Structure formats: C-alpha cells, structure tokens
C-alpha cells in the first residue's frame, strides 16, 4: 500500500490517492467487521506515512474515519484508532491545525475512556498535538473557544484534567492570547476548582494563578466588567478553596479596575459582607474579604453625589471596556477616582488603575442597589457582628460622600437604624449612633416639610431653639470630612428633632433598652452631637409626654447623666453659673421637664446654685405622696452631694451668710429621710457647717452680694414653682387612676 501511494504521489495522481483513501475508509475502517476496521485504520496510517508532507492535502479524508472509530465499542479498536491518528498527525504536523477542533473533541472523549490502554494511547496523541500547537503560530483560537467553553463544564475527572492541561499549554504560548477569552471560560475554571480530585484542584489552581499573573501584567487588555458577576457568584461558593480564590481575584479586580467595578457594587457587597463575620477557621477568606470591602468603599467619591442620568458628560468618553456591562454611564476622570481613596485605614499596594484604552470610563454608582443590600444585611438578625459593623460603616461613608442621594433613602433606613440600637454589641451601637448623628447633623438633611421619618414627625408643636458649637473637636474620631458636613455646622437639620422623638419612643416601648443602654446611648450622642441640643430637645419632648411614669423615669436617667458623665462637664459648667441668656433658657427648659421627678428638680437647682428655689421645692414635698421610690431617690441625691460633682456646693457651706438657703435645703432633705445611712451621712456633713447660730435668713428682696443671684434675676421662680405643683398634681392623678384600675382588676379576679 505505501509503495502504491508513493507511485501515485510521484505521478501527481490525486484522484487515485483519494480513491485509495476512500476504499480504506468506506470498505475497511467503517466496515461492520471489527478485523476489517482494524485493517482499515492501519491502512490509513500507512497511507499517511507514504504521503509524507503531502498528507496535509488529504487530512479531512484521513482523519474523519479514524475519529469515527473513537466511538467504537471495542476497546482494542479504539486503541488502534489512537495509534492510527497518532501516525497521521505526526506526519502532517502543523497541517492538522485547521482540523484541531475535531481532534480536540475526539481526544476529550478518549481522556475519559475506561480502558487504560486507550487512555495511555490518547495521552501520547495528546502530547504530540500539544507540541504541534506550541511550536505553531497559526492556531485558530477564535474557532477553538466555543468548543473549549462547552467542554469545560464536563463533570468527568479525566475530561477536566484534559481541559486544564490544554488551558495551561495555551496560556504558555506567547503568540496565543487566551486572556482575551478568559470571560468565556472563567466560570468553568471555578467549577473545576471544586473537583474532588486534589490533583485536578491543584492544576486548576495553577491555571487560575497564571491567569491572575497575566492580568496584573496586562491590566489594560482585561475585560474586568465581563468577569465581575462571575466572581460575585463564586465568592459565595460553599467550597472554601473556590471562595478564597474568587475573593482574591475580586480583590485584584477592584484594585486594578477601579471604578469599572462600581456598577457591580451591590453584588460584590452581597458576597463580601457575610465573610467579614467568619471565625478563625476561615481567617484567610475573612482577611481578603475585608480588603475587598475597604477597597470598594474607597471607589465612592463625592462626585458621585453630583452625577445624574440626565447630566451631560463632562468629558469625551472613550470606548468602554465592556459596552454590554457598563450601562447608564456617567463620566469620572481617573484623578477624581483617586481623590476618594485617602480616607480609610487600609493602604493598598496597587494604585488605582484605569485601562489605557478608556482612561475616562463612564460609570454609574447604583446607590439604590447598594442601599438595598446594606438594609437586608442590617435587618438580618442572624448576620454576625462584624458584618453589621461593616454595613454601618458603609452607610456612614455613603452619607459622607453622597449625602444628597442618600437622604432619599433615609425614610426607609431610619426604622432599622433605630432597631439596631437594641443590638447586643456595644461596637455596633457606637457605629449606629455615629451614623444617626451624621444623619441628624448633615446639611443635606435640611428637607422640605414632611420629608423625614413618618412616625412622630408631627409631634413637635413648635420650633425649639437649638445651638451647635463651632468646635471641630465635636467630630467623631473616625470622621475625616470637612467642617461643611460635620456636626459643627450652624444648624441642626430637620432629622435631628425627629431622631430625638423616635429615640424617646424607642425607650418608652422598650424599657429594657433604657435600663441597660439608655445612659450609654445618650452619652455617646452628647459626644457626637451637641450635648445642649440633646438635652434641650429631649426636655422639650418630655414636657408633652403623656406617659407620666415614663417621663419621670426618663428625666431621672437624663439627670443622672447630666450630673455624673464626664462628657457633660462643659454643659454642667454652663448651667452652674447661668451667666448667659442661653444658659438660663436651657435651665428653664430642663426645669419644666425635670418637674416630672421632684428629687431631680431639686438636684437641678443644686447644680445651678438656685438654693432658695430648692428650699421652696423641698417645702412643697410635704404635700406629695412620699413613697419608697421617692425616699430612694432622696437617698441617691445625698450620695451625689458627697461626690466630686458637688464639691463647689460643699465648699459653699463655709459661707453661711451668703448661702443660708443651701443649708436650709439640706436640712430639709435630712428631715425627709428616715434614720438610714444616708441620714447619717448628711447629718455628719451638716455638723461640719461652722457657726450654726449665724444661719439667719436675710431678706430676699434686698440686693445680694452674690453675682449668681444678679445673673439669674430674670428667671420667674414663682412661675416655675407653680409649674412644679401643676406637674405633680398630674402625677398624683395618674397614680390614683393606676391604683383604681389595679383595684378593679383585683375585684374581677376575685369574682
């Protein structure tokens, strides 16, 4: 047969050559008899060897019948087919590349062949074909990708191993740019990464690592946008290796592609946020996810707050990396993107990169989608603490960078932020308060009437005078924004008062929160916002509180904070002297609400050095219902008088002549107390007062040498005393009503 074929070649008799190949194919290789098929395969191989370099002219006729035999039921015949094709390819070399797809298809099937001999033969053929592809520069990658994309989803281990080996080979060939087609096969690669075989997982890991190296070397040619959603899916995989690898890729994509990744922020956050609460068993994933989260946060810049869909482009846009994935574009320059990357703690090793083909990429921040994801994770009670903290940091960051757009979502976010105050973690509550303080103080929150939290928005009957300090030190430590967006702006916005209303409602309906975290929350708010505003607004709201028992409890809590918290040192000093009109107005506002609790009213008078009025109040205590709770509060007040807060008061006991009502007020408290430890404590203190015989009450109508009295002379103490009596009468009626209802209930139970 070879001699006959060589003669035909020498004669250039192509028709006879084709006739010989046809006979070998039709009458032998495709025969029904297995021995004839074996003979036909041997004959086709011999024919190819005889043709030599001319075999390339007849490859279609030579290859097709051999590939048909790859599906033969006889394993020995499949082995003969491998051997025949090996000889054909070895002779033809680069000429077989136009037929590469059919060869690859056949080999991919043999790679999973159950017969070891067939598998061994296919491996030899596979190595030969790889050598040919490696040394050639005519490989048709475009035509091969659809087949590779189809075969990469095979579940057979051997087929997967075969696919990965070919991807590694193609990736190593300098003339073949497989990176352009990575979006076509990336999902399949991550599927293979979850294979049960350690060897295959390792091979796949190496392949993905090579691709990632190539991406870092040539980021300008990478289609980041087309692969973003693929990574989002696999960042949520149950398999740790898949999740870690995908998260590492996501980290590099965010750092290399920059704002190209912004349209996919909601998906990225969906994948990344839950990982932040992983324990040490998944420490690596948690660390990479944290970097992804911080890097993505830096991509949001103040210019995003100014962008609207209707706004014309600021620059001439270059062609996007992926026209399909960058929808509703808006233009931001690379410099603008870099501007927003200097406020967070994590410093990235890689600079923000924009592909050179489109340095001015048009992207739109999908704020609605981001807020929806953040809202979902904050509402989910099963989410870990670190995830909730990250969500609150995100919301705070968005309110800093894009306040105008974020305030459109405040109505929906406000309820969940209030509920978060009941969180078990102090750190979560701190971040929540920081966010609520930003909402309450941002100039962007100056909204039209009715645009705010719906619940309680109509409670405020009139304006309350609010004062905001001009000190940047009032800013929270984590905030690096300028004064124009800080809590030290000239006025509080329309959300501040609504926040105070809803916070008090929260305390009213959830008493456990008030007992366990009430003081903590209010003290932190006094740091984040202005303490005077906090107390002024709460006192104004409590003045109209219908639940008198809650009002009394809340006033007691506020009074304790006012007298004991280091955060309120300045406010105490302001109230102590009452030198300014503002401080006197604040005192009158607090006093009217403090009247819900008689003992706290007296303590406020002690703080403000209104000793005469304190004495007048104590005289009224004889008309009140003295209960155990009342005496307990008097006991606590005595304890407070011995604290450093009232050092100035104890020193004033030395000046008997100018402070007679202070001594009389203290004696009044002493007379109220039963023979208890507090009684002994106060009694011993009063025994230290020098020259008791000099305690003569001077005429109050005469001018006093005390500057204190002169400064507060415009306060109508008679009216305040009448208000105190009015409020206490309300409390008395309320107690009688509660007692009546309890008695009726007892009768019903008896009946």
From TrEMBL:
Domain Vacuolar protein 14 C-terminal Fig4-binding: 511-689
SUPFAM superfamilies, sorted: ARM repeat
Keyword Transcription (UniProt): no
Coiled coil: none
Subcellular location per the Swiss-Prot or TrEMBL entry: Endosome membrane; Microsome membrane
Protein name: Protein VAC14 homolog
Region Disordered, annotated ranges: 307-340, 443-486
Family membership: Belongs to the VAC14 family.
Gene Ontology biological process terms, A to Z: phosphatidylinositol biosynthetic process
Biased composition (Polar residues): 474-486
PANTHER family tied to this protein: PROTEIN VAC14 HOMOLOG, TAX1 BINDING PROTEIN-RELATED
Function: Scaffold protein component of the PI(3,5)P2 regulatory complex which regulates both the synthesis and turnover of phosphatidylinositol 3,5-bisphosphate (PtdIns(3,5)P2). Pentamerizes into a star-shaped structure and nucleates the assembly of the complex. The pentamer binds a single copy each of PIKFYVE and FIG4 and coordinates both PIKfyve kinase activity and FIG4 phosphatase activity, being required to maintain normal levels of phosphatidylinositol 3-phosphate (PtdIns(3)P) and phosphatidylinositol 5-phosphate (PtdIns(5)P).
Subunit structure: Forms pentamers. Component of the PI(3,5)P2 regulatory complex/PAS complex, at least composed of PIKFYVE, FIG4 and VAC14. VAC14 nucleates the assembly of the complex and serves as a scaffold by pentamerizing into a star-shaped structure, which can bind a single copy each of PIKFYVE and FIG4 and coordinates their activities. Interacts with NOS1.
């Amino acid at each position: 047969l070879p001699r006959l074929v060589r003669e035909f070649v020498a004669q250039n008799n192509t028709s006879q050559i084709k006739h010989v190949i046809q006979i070998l194919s039709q009458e032998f290789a495709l025969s029904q008899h297995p021995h004839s098929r074996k003979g036909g395969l041997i004959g086709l191989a011999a024919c190819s060897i005889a043709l030599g370099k001319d075999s390339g002219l007849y490859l279609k006729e030579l290859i097709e019948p051999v590939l048909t035999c790859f599906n033969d039921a006889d394993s020995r015949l499949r082995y003969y087919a491998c051997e025949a094709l090996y000889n054909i390819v070895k002779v033809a070399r680069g000429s077989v590349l136009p037929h590469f797809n059919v060869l690859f298809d056949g080999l991919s099937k043999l790679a999973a062949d159950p017969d070891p001999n067939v598998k061994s033969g296919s491996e030899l053929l596979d190595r030969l074909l790889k050598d040919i592809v490696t040394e050639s520069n005519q490989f048709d990658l475009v035509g091969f990708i659809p087949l590779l994309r189809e075969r990469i989803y095979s579940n057979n281990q051997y087929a997967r191993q075969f696919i990965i080996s070919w991807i590694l080979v193609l990736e190593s060939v300098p003339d073949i740019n497989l990176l352009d087609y990575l979006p076509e096969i990336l999902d399949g690669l991550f599927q293979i990464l979850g294979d049960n075989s350690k060897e295959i997982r390792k091979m796949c890991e190496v392949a993905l690592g090579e691709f990632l190296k190539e991406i870092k070397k040539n980021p300008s040619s990478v289609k980041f946008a087309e692969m973003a959603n693929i990574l989002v899916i696999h960042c949520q995989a149950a398999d740790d290796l898949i999740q870690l690898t995908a998260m590492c890729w996501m980290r590099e994509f965010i750092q290399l592609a920059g704002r190209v990744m912004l349209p996919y922020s909601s998906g990225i956050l969906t994948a990344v946020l839950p990982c932040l609460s992983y324990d040490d068993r998944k420490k690596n994933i948690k660390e990479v996810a944290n970097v992804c989260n911080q890097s993505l946060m830096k991509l949001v810049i103040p210019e995003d707050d100014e962008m609207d869909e209707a706004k014309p482009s600021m620059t001439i846009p270059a062609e996007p990396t992926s026209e399909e994935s960058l929808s509703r574009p808006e233009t931001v320059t690379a410099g603008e993107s870099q501007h927003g990357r200097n406020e967070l703690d994590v410093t990235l090793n890689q600079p923000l990169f924009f592909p050179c083909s489109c340095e001015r990429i048009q992207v739109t921040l999908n704020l609605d989608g981001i807020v929806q994801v953040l809202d979902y994770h904050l509402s989910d009670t099963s989410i870990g603490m670190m995830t909730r903290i990250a969500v609150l940091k995100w919301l705070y960051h968005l309110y800093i960078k894009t306040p105008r757009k974020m305030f459109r979502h405040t109505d929906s976010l406000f309820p969940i932020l209030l509920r978060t105050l009941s969180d078990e973690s102090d750190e979560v509550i701190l971040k929540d308060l920081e966010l609520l303080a930003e909402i309450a103080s941002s100039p962007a929150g100056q909204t039209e009437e009715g645009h705010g939290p719906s619940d309680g928005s109509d409670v405020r009957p009139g304006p309350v005078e609010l004062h905001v300090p001009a000190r940047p030190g009032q800013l929270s430590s984590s905030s690096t924004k300028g004064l124009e967006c800080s809590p030290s702006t000239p006025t509080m916005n329309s959300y501040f008062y609504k926040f105070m209303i809803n916070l008090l409602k929260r305390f009213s309906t959830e008493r456990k929160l008030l007992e366990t975290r009430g003081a903590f929350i209010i003290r932190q708010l006094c740091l984040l916002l202005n303490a005077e505003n906090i107390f002024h607004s709460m006192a104004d709201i409590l003045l109209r509180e219908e639940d008198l028992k809650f009002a009394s409890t809340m006033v007691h809590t506020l009074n304790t904070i006012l007298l004991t918290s280091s955060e309120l040192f300045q406010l105490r000093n302001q109230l102590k002297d009452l030198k300014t009109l503002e401080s006197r107005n604040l005192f009158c506002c607090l006093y009217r609400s403090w009247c819900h609790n008689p003992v706290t009213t007296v303590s406020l008078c002690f703080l403000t050095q209104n000793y005469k009025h304190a004495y007048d109040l104590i005289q009224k205590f004889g008309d009140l219902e003295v209960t155990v709770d009342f005496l307990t509060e008097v006991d606590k007040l005595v304890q407070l008088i011995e604290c450093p807060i009232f050092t100035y008061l104890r020193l004033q006991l030395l000046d008997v002549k100018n402070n007679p009502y202070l001594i009389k007020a203290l004696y009044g408290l002493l007379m109220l107390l039963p023979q208890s430890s507090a009684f002994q404590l106060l009694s011993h203190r009063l025994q230290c007062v020098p020259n008791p015989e000099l305690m003569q009450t001077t005429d109050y109508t005469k001018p006093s040498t005390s500057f204190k009295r002169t400064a507060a002379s415009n306060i109508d103490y008679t009216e305040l005393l009448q208000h105190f009596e009015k409020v206490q009468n309300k409390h008395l009626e309320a107690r009688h009503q509660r007692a009546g209802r309890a008695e009726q209930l007892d009768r019903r139970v008896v009946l």
